[in-house]
Amino acid sequence: MGASLRGLADALASVLFPAPCRICGETLAHAGRIPICAPCLASLSAITGPICDRCGFPIVSSVVSAIGQETAAAPLCHICRRGLYDFNLARSYGVYTPAMARAIILLKYHAVFPLGDWFAARLQETARALRNDCVADIVVPVPVHSARLRERGYNQAELIARPLARRLNIPLQSCLLVRTRPRPDKLKLTTRERWRTVRGAYAMQEGARVDKLRVLLVDDVMTTGATLDACSRALRQAGAAQIVALTVARAILRRPISGPSAVESDE
Predict the structure, then answer these.
(1) What pLDDT is attached to residue 243?
(2) In a shared domain, residues 25 and 98
(3) Do 210 and 111 fall into the same domain?
């Protein structure tokens, strides 16, 4: 009965106060805490098909897939074959499509906080698919610099990590990592600039230790993997035994990533 009343109230609100979907612009059929229509939400779907066994990058090369099938070995992207990432494993829920980008922007810049829990539910599905690989002792969100935190008032990664930790029944450690250098003001960074910008930009909170702990590292988007790698190195130096990274979306770059020498859309 309560659900029926809520549905009736939503329908009435949508008639009296029509609002557009913040992704496609169509009028919402129902009022809700997330201003996105059902078709657009459904379009934010999970990654399917073969992926890199280490970083989760979608494998589009038929040659790599065929080699994996012939040798019964898990396929690896060219970055992971070179062993450049310091995390043990990374997975993303969906591809960073224009619709996914708009949804993340709503959380990141427009404070549509209910999306944090919606994204957390999707990452819970992603974590469950990993089974024992995703067993963790603590959940740690990728931090933003203190200046950005004062400006925005919140860390979008924590808005996802907090409900995810609650869903997985794992303690959240939101102040364990700190960003010691701000992101440059330049709007778009090259891959080389991204790696250079985040290298050494993350550190442990003074006195914090993660000796022999398994860490679940959470962020909104994985582009090159540079941010996750930099955070992982700080955690590893502090004694972390395993680091699994989860992000809502994975960007598919037009050009191959060449690693640290060649870094991540963050903050």
Answers:
(1) 97
(2) no
(3) yes
